[in-house]
Amino acid sequence: MRKLFILFLCTASVFAFTACGNKAGKKAASDDGEVDLGKVVENIEKATFDGEKNTKEAAAFYFKKNFGLDINNLKPDFALQGGTPGKYDFLGEEKSSSYITFIAKDSTLVRDEYIEYVKKVYAATQKVADGGINVYGFMAKEKPEEAAAEKTLETVLDEGKPSKLFGMEFYIGNYGWEFIKDGVYYMLDVKQLEKKVNGEDKPYAARVIIDQGLQKSFNETMDEAEKVLSDPEVQKQLKDAMKNLSK
Q: Rounded to the nearest 5°, which phi and psi values hold at 52?
């Protein structure tokens, strides 16, 4: 029972944001203007960001500070929707996932153009990564040497390709890999966002989400979590948190 609880905690901490990100994406609007990197660099020199976290500036700050990525270089080649960004188009946070969203013109994301964008993001992380490669990470591989092995673009695209069931094609549009920056594993997902158009789900935007990945194998991480959970003080805090949730 305890191990199941630990597994829930570990999994929730890694994946909870992704679910929230997908829900938020339904409300998105977009802006094809570039970020003022002068202001971003100024904030990086101060090592803090004072503004609202759901802004393009916040996302630019944390993408640069945490991952070494200039979000202007992550701008897609496909035409973008104009207008003011929606509340949930961007997120920049220090201790959690950060993401950027790009909405296609007329809210119509063509698959071939989207896949070309995945390739562009792959190349961008490859450029800043230690050793110049993108890797599998500990979410996919247990052994350190396998986690740090190169995950090629061909593998990434193959994992995200459409599947068929009963003669029908299913395409989720999710692509993922990890990269190591200054010895730290980061996991990245490129997601195709959809919304209802005349009762049918239609792809309309691309979102890039980056978060810190596991730094050790999943089993090692679970063992450490179990030790933490066995601490009486931690158990007390969990009980208090459960009580607060039930109020």
A: -70, 135
CA distance 132 to 135: 10
CA–CA–CA angle 54, 103, 81 (5° rounding)? 105
List Cβ neighbours of 87 (8 Å cut-off, separation of 6 or more). Answer: 24, 27, 54
Please report the DSSP string for 75-123 in residue order.
--SS-B--SPPPTTS-B--SSS-EEEEEEBGGG---HHHHHHHHHHHHH
SS3 160: coil
Assess contact for 185 and 89: CB atoms under 8 A: no
Report CA-CA distances (Å) from 104 to 18, 181, 204, 206, 220: 21, 30, 6, 8, 42
Q: What is the largest CA-CA distance in the chain?
A: 56
Closest CA to 205 of 112, 101, 60, 122: 101
Where does residue 85 fall: left (phi above 0), alpha (psi -120 to 50 degrees), or beta otherwise?
beta
Determine the angle formed by the axes of helices 218-229 and 2-25, rounding to 10 degrees: 110
Please count the residues of the chain. Answer: 247
> pTM score, two decimals?
0.76
pLDDT of 2 higher than 90:
no
**Which residue did the predictor score with more confidence, 37 or 164?**
164
Average pLDDT, the chain: 84
